[in-house]
Amino acid sequence: MLERHRFSLLLSGGGARAAYQVGVLRAITRLLPRNHSLPFPILCGTSAGAINATALACFASCYHLGVRKLEWVWKNFRTQQVYESEFYPLFSYLLRNQLQNLMSEQIARRPASLLDNQPLRGLLRQALNFNRIDRNIITGHLKAISVTASSYSTNNSISFFQGDDQLADWERAKRRGVRSSLNVEHLMASAAIPLVFPTVKLADEYFGDGSIHQLSPLSTPIHLGAEKILIIGVEQPRPDRKHLLSHYPNNAVVAGHLLDTIFADTLHSDLERLHRINHTLSLLSDKQRQATHLKPVECLALNPAFNVNEIAARHYHHLPWGIRSLMKLLGVRPDSESSLLSYLLFDGRFCQHLMDLGYQDGLNRLDEIRAFLEI
């Protein structure tokens, strides 16, 4: 596997949209025999992408098995496995959070949020065996797994990584890499969508979704030794023409725009910067290139070729009644222009729909993926 240690998989965040990533990963199984290990031994994930990446790390010795495990979880998802969705516990949780605002700042408070994702913590403990990660690193099937979270304490992006002994911590402007033994709390921190899910305390810092302060998503795989990075995102195609709203956007539309920005825009900027660096390096002589201490890095990005929000709207009625009531209070309805629903719709039927379309997208670009991964 050592000859493949320059290949990396980067999975971005996106809540329930991350089911799409599993469909693309399934398409890649068509390129490999059943007992083949990971074709990209460096795994990097953020938010829901971090959960998918960690699951693959646990089954790094058999890529097919890891993808099948992920498929089974996503297609059998029920909303209540991710966050409290029944009417009484949902609204009592919201009421307790509001009452906390009347308390003194000196009194210890519980983390406040729109939804209580304690059920997700239980699901992750049940589904993932973190002891497998070290075993896969020792046997060479995995070089590194990284989970990125955002520190509310320092405003830095922190990449918690577990990998072989040759990897070292790093520190750059607004971002750090910290060697860790990954556990459920790292995943809960990375997937704590701002305002939606509660913050998580790790050591002496408070963390939220890894996409918040992630100014350079490509930095982590590059620091871990990647030279070729396969990126599976969850951003839907942008409209060809300007979309004019007929009225002032409500809170739900604004919240959807904020999530779209958090999960996608920094990656676009980082890819643009990478292309400029690669082009500059191609113009230098070998001696000049060595003096820069930079190396060219290749990337291949895959994103949905369909409108995720339209599909989410078709599955709106699958939300539990309590969550539908809350969504209506926030201004989210089946005909809403907000993308908030597509991030929170953890329903197996919606997830299966995304996986099927992700699989088709992967098949459509399979020759391109095969060439990129040199399979």
Task: Please supply descriptive tags for the structure shown above.
alpha/beta, 375 residues, hydrolase activity, Patatin-like phospholipase family protein, lipid metabolism, 15 helices, ten-stranded mixed beta sheet, globular
User: How far from one another are the termini?
Assistant: 13 Å
Q: What is the residue-averaged pLDDT?
A: 90
Topology order in helix (H) and strand (E) letters: EHEHHHHHEEEEHEEHEHHEHHHHH
Count up the helices.
15
| Apparent shape | globular
User: Could you name the ranges where pLDDT drops below 50 across 5 or more consecutive residues?
Assistant: none
Find the count of extended strands (DSSP E, 2+ residues): 10
Strand content: 5-15%
- Major sheet description: 10 strands, mixed
Rg over CA atoms: 20 Å
Determine the structural class based on helices, strands and strand pairing: alpha/beta
Helical proportion, percent range: 40-55%
Write the layout of secondary structure elements.
Blueprint: E1 7-11, H1 19-28, E2 42-46, H2 48-58, H3 63-75, H4 87-100, H5 118-127, H6 131-138, E3 144-151, E4 157-163, E5 170-172, E6 175-179, H7 184-190, E7 200-202, E8 205-208, H8 219-223, E9 228-232, H9 251-282, H10 286-292, E10 298-302, H11 308-314, H12 321-330, H13 340-344, H14 348-364, H15 366-373
Parallel strand pairs: 1-2, 1-9, 2-3, 4-6, 9-10
Antiparallel strand pairs: 3-4, 3-8, 5-6, 7-8
Walk me through the structure:
This is Patatin-like phospholipase family protein. A motif (GXSXG) lies at residues 45-49. Pfam families: Patatin (PF01734). GO terms for molecular function: hydrolase activity. InterPro entries: Acyl_Trfase/lysoPLipase, NTE, PNPLA_dom. With 375 residues, the chain is of the alpha/beta class. The chain contains 15 helices and ten strands. Strands 1, 2, 3, 4, 5, 6, 7, 8, 9 and 10 form a ten-stranded mixed β-sheet that branches. Strand 7 (200-202) and strand 8 form a beta hairpin. Helix 4 crosses helix 12. The two termini are 13 Å apart.
